[in-house]
Write a structure and sequence with these properties.
Number of helices: 1
Shape: rod-shaped
Strand content: 15-25%
Strand order of the largest sheet: 1-2
Radius of gyration: 26 Å
Oligomer: single chain
Low-confidence stretches: 1-17
């Protein structure tokens, strides 16, 4: 009876009870453990709830970040259509502009973010070297002295 008790206690303490699977560094070297199940992450934001390596307990990455090689963060593989700011993936907006998991930047002077680039809309004042969302920076009429996106 005492022997059976010791086997049960030691088995539970070390996760080695007969006939059961134990998720650990040996059984789950490329993933993390959650509810005694090994989860291998594929690097997408959808997999951010199961992040970790070498059989550690899975962690949930912050909203907007993904998991790459067992670490929460933001890069081209977890944020291909947006930009990264402080480890979080953002869709393009005025405050967070960029693409391919690169560093986000803020559009200024009335520019908007279009396909990861700050640009000016039709009729907005511009200067040579400015980016217009569509068309180009040009004089709006023959007598005009300032450039506009057309």
């Amino acid at each position: 009876m005492i022997r059976l008790f010791l086997v049960a206690v030691l088995g539970a303490a070390f996760g080695t009870a007969c006939g059961t699977f134990s998720c650990d560094a040996t059984s789950c070297p490329d993933g993390c453990c959650r509810d005694n199940v090994c989860h291998v992450n594929d690097g997408t934001k959808e997999d951010a709830f199961k992040c970790g390596l070498s059989g550690v307990a899975c962690v949930q990455c912050p909203s907007g970040s993904g998991c790459t090689k067992g670490v929460c963060g933001c890069d081209a593989s977890t944020c291909p259509n947006g930009c990264c700011d402080q480890g979080v993936c953002h869709d393009n907006s005025y405050d967070f502009c960029g693409t391919g998991g690169g560093q986000c930047f803020k559009c200024i002077n009335g520019a908007s973010c279009h396909s990861g680039t700050c640009c000016f809309g039709y009729g907005h004042a511009c200067s040579n070297g400015s980016s217009c969302c569509s068309g180009s920076c040009q004089l709006p009429s023959s007598g005009a002295t300032s450039l506009e996106c057309k």
